[in-house]
Write a structure and sequence with these properties.
CATH class of the largest domain: Alpha Beta
Low-confidence stretches: none
Oligomer: single chain
Helix content: 40-55%
Order of helices and strands: HEHEHHHHEEHEHEHHEHHHHE
Structural class: alpha/beta
CATH topology of the largest domain: Rossmann fold
Largest sheet: 4 strands, mixed
Strand order of the largest sheet: 4-3-6-5
């Protein structure tokens, strides 16, 4: 909230919004209480601390669609419309919510602002990796002895994250998704978890939702789970994304049933390329990252399931 007020002051805005999933009842109640306290102390409202600057914060309870992580979808949702991505230009900074210039940032990004102002940019740059300074909230899940959310400096290795914070793997390590289902699988435990090094490893860090997978799990099952999610969360506006995810889902089900056809592997790769080149937003462009990287790294798992000729 403090960062949101500062951001409003920096851009000359007098209203800020916190977009949150409507079913997060506990978090919404905490935010409402914090806003009330800030208003009572004149940290929010009219003429804040006699500065001449006025600013208000409103909580917007969204329906929880995954696609609302795309900024134009979020604006459409806040405007009472279906959360479909819109074409740019205009960009939100030109014409966003209610047609007014709108700055959109992730809560985690804004939360760094007060500490940077208090301690300085040099202090912040010394935290974590030289290429990606600062701390990061790592959500660690999967076959881990101690899953959870850990705030640690960027640049820690995947091995250190798993062993020092997750208390080790349940079973034998096979692969990990460093940025959740939207990222690609990696197999190198010694990759540094910052934006540059993960990109060089062929994946993306994104929200740092690290999912660890052990040797007991079929990556066909992981791929099926990922594409089921994106097929469900696709807004449906873009036929490339809507039909691409549906078709890939059917192909993966054939692999899952041991009835995949010759050519199905190449068909997934072709679908991925078409979706990356032509989908209307980032959701459609990254939907097949998991199956494509699974094929690249563990192709034999897919080849062994081919039973029918094309």
């Amino acid at each position: 909230m403090e960062a949101l007020i500062i951001a409003g002051y920096a851009v000359g805005a007098n209203k800020g919004f916190i977009y949150i999933r409507g079913e997060y009842y506990t978090e919404i109640a905490a935010l409402e209480k914090a806003i009330q306290k800030a208003q009572e102390k004149n940290y929010l409202g009219s003429n804040i601390l006699s500065s001449g600057f006025s600013f208000g914060i409103e909580i917007y309870k969204g329906a929880g669609a995954y696609v609302c992580g795309e900024e134009t979808s979020l604006i459409e949702s806040m405007s009472g419309m279906r959360p479909n991505p819109t074409s740019r230009p205009p960009f939100p900074a030109q014409a966003g919510f209610l047609g007014k210039p709108t700055v959109i940032n992730n809560v985690e990004t804004l939360a760094n602002i007060p500490s940077i102002i208090t301690h300085g940019g040099l202090w912040y740059s010394r935290i974590g990796s030289p290429d990606s300074p600062g701390p990061k909230l790592f959500s660690l899940s999967g076959h881990i002895n101690k899953p959870g959310v850990y705030e640690i400096p960027l640049g820690v290795t995947l091995r250190e994250l798993i062993e020092s914070y997750g208390c080790g793997i349940r079973g034998e390590f096979k692969a990990a998704l460093p940025g959740g289902l939207s990222s690609k699988l990696i197999t190198n435990l010694d990759v540094k978890l910052d934006y540059k090094n993960v990109a060089q490893a062929g994946s993306s860090l994104g929200p740092a939702s690290v999912i660890v997978i052990n040797q007991d799990i079929s990556l066909i099952d992981v791929s099926l789970n990922a594409v089921q999610f994106f097929s469900h969360e696709s807004c449906g506006k873009c036929s490339i994304c809507r039909e691409g995810n549906r078709n890939c889902l059917e192909i993966l089900r054939r692999f899952n049933r041991d009835t995949a056809r010759t050519g199905d592997i190449e068909l997934i790769l072709e679908l991925n390329q078409v979706m990356r080149d032509t989908a209307g937003c980032i959701l459609g462009q990254i939907s097949l990252n998991v199956p494509v990287s699974a094929i690249q790294l563990f192709r034999n798992e897919f080849v062994s399931r081919v039973r029918e000729r094309a």
